[in-house]
Design a protein that fits this description.
155 residues; six-stranded antiparallel β-sheet; Jelly Rolls; mainly beta; seven-stranded antiparallel β-sheet
Length: 155
């Protein structure tokens, strides 16, 4: 039987130019950590000449949780159990302490990024810590909406 797997999906988050913004997070409870098995990002940019946005996959110690909208983790496989995972989206105040693990650029004009790690090759975080996707668009660019999903397993 596979581990209990969860998906945490955000809402459209408005990203202002040159201002880092966390768009989705998932935080482990004190009883277990989280294996990150995949994530998705998408953008609703309207201009084909827009510069790509920088995305960062970060760990978060949750020293401060930030200010956000709740995002409900949904169990997608494994034995049904209470998740204990806390999801959040569309941050207006950034969580801390964020440490980038992976980063790159993706087009904002109909941009889409899907990452699925091969079995036993993903990343994990400690108990009471979490995963955050943070986006920064280039200076001078128009505001764009972004959305994200984290796919996790208990570890």
């Amino acid at each position: 039987m596979a581990k209990a797997r969860y998906s945490v999906t955000g809402v459209a988050s408005s990203i202002a130019a040159n201002t880092p913004k966390s768009i989705i997070s998932a935080v482990a409870p004190a009883q277990f950590g989280l294996d990150l098995v995949g994530f998705e990002l998408s953008f609703e940019g309207a201009s084909s000449t827009a510069k790509p946005a920088r995305w960062e996959l970060c760990t978060s110690t949750q020293a401060t949780a930030g200010t956000s909208t709740a995002a409900t983790p949904v169990q997608v496989s494994g034995r049904t159990i209470t998740s204990g995972i806390t999801g959040a989206t569309n941050f207006t105040v950034e969580p801390t302490v964020l440490t980038p693990v992976l980063a790159d650029y993706v087009p904002v004009f109909n941009g889409l990024l899907k990452v699925e790690f091969a079995p036993l090759t993903g990343y994990d975080c400690a108990v009471s810590n979490g995963w955050v996707i943070r986006i920064t668009t280039a200076a001078g660019e128009a505001t764009v909406n972004a959305n994200g999903t984290l796919v996790l397993e208990r570890c």
